[in-house]
Amino acid sequence: MLLAACETAPVTGRSQIMLVSENEERQMGLQAYRQVLAKEPLLHDAQANALVEKVGKRIAAAAERPPAEMWRAPHFRWEFSTIDKNEPNAFCLPGGKVAVYTGILSITRTEAGLAAVIGHEVAHALARHGAERMSDQMAASVGAAAAATALATTVSGRSRTYRPAMMAAVGAGATVGFILPMSRAQESEADRIGLVLMALAGYDPHEAIGVWERMRAANAGSRRQAEWLSTHPADTTRLNDIRGWVNEAMKYYRRRD
Asked: Which of 25, 121, 132, 207 does the annotation list as catalytic?
């Protein structure tokens, strides 16, 4: 079953296990998108909305017309929204449902900076990271169930007292040793794919460096978890990786005005 569920991520060529169908993933993405828009305030600023729409459509067009054999065109039903909330955030849900929070616009600053963020978010959907994460959770649950069965048959006597603690250790091991590293890998992968997307859309990938430098500065006052306990790479790690991937993305860059 796992062999049949194998896929390959765009650009990086990383092997993925997908236990969730594309149709299921898109339905969940649409439902989540509608729920977010129902409770979040939408921006009523024609200029800002037009900018998000313009950049989003250029990134979407790049995703839909990939270079030969780089990835399969997703044929999403794209939607773009701007949420009026002072939060440095953006997302792209499965199926191409994109939202940008106004709080991130002071960090992106320019059209190309916004392309870096939207490119990163679209990359998550393009690489099916949501479905992969659900598949990882399913695999981890199966592993935990197998461990519980093994403990039930092998732990006896007074040792049974320690079974809950042992199961908790198994769960923690799955999180720290598998789920969190995979999440960090997906974030790094989205950075790399996003650089290619913005280049294909006619935005200079070097602009992403400034965006993430400003993001690091914005995070400077906040207390961050150790990288190995986090869902995201450390800011310094992310910047170093992006600097290393820019030349790869520049192969696809053609300036557009």
From this structure: 121
Q: Are 92 and 118 in contact, with CB atoms under 8 Å apart?
A: yes
CA distance 78 to 95: 7
Instruction: Give exposure, 52-86, as e/b (b: 16+ Cβ within 10 Å).
Output: bbebbebbbebbeebeeeebeebebebbbbbbebe
Is residue 111 annotated as a catalytic residue, yes or no?
no
User: Does residue 51 contact residue 69 with C-beta atoms inside 8 Å?
Assistant: no
Domain segments of the chain as ranges:
1-257
- Residue from 90, 93, 123 nearest 107 by CA: 90
Instruction: Give me the amino acid identity at 63.
Output: A
CA gap 91, 112 in Å, rounded: 17
Q: Which of 128, 135, 2 is nearest to 71 (CA)?
A: 128
Q: Rounded CA gap, 66 and 43, in Å?
A: 31
Taking the model in full, what pTM does it have?
0.82
Tens of pLDDT, residues 196-245: 999 999 999 999 999 999 999 988 877 665 554 466 788 899 999 999 99
| ∠ CA 67-208-193, rounded to 5° | 30
- Per DSSP, 7 falls in state E
Averaged pLDDT for residues 165-174: 40
User: Of 54, 59, 52, nearest to 74 (Cα)?
Assistant: 59
